[in-house]
Design brief:
The protein has 73 residues and is low in regular secondary structure. Helices cover 12% and strands 0% of the residues. The two termini are 15 Å apart. 8% of the residues are buried.
Length: 73
């Protein structure tokens, strides 16, 4: 029942990470995707080549830790 105020929100549910917005956005080069379609990020979770775009959740290519939303809560 708690209301959270945000400028933008994304529905992030399901078993397959969805990076479709990267493929359809002409301002983001496809090279930011790895062979699995995951978004390449640096150690600060910034999309490679973009200091103002952060990638959280299963769609980023961080593989050395679990990405559990209940842990974030």
């Amino acid at each position: 029942g708690e209301m959270i105020e945000a400028d933008i929100a994304f529905l992030c549910t399901g078993n397959v990470p969805n990076s479709e917005f990267v493929v359809t956005n002409q301002k983001i080069p496809r090279e930011v995707l790895d062979p699995l379609g995951l978004i390449k990020v640096n150690s600060h979770l910034q999309m490679n080549g973009f200091s103002n775009i952060f990638v959280a959740g299963d769609v980023n290519n961080v593989n050395d830790e679990e990405k559990l939303c209940q842990t974030a809560g």
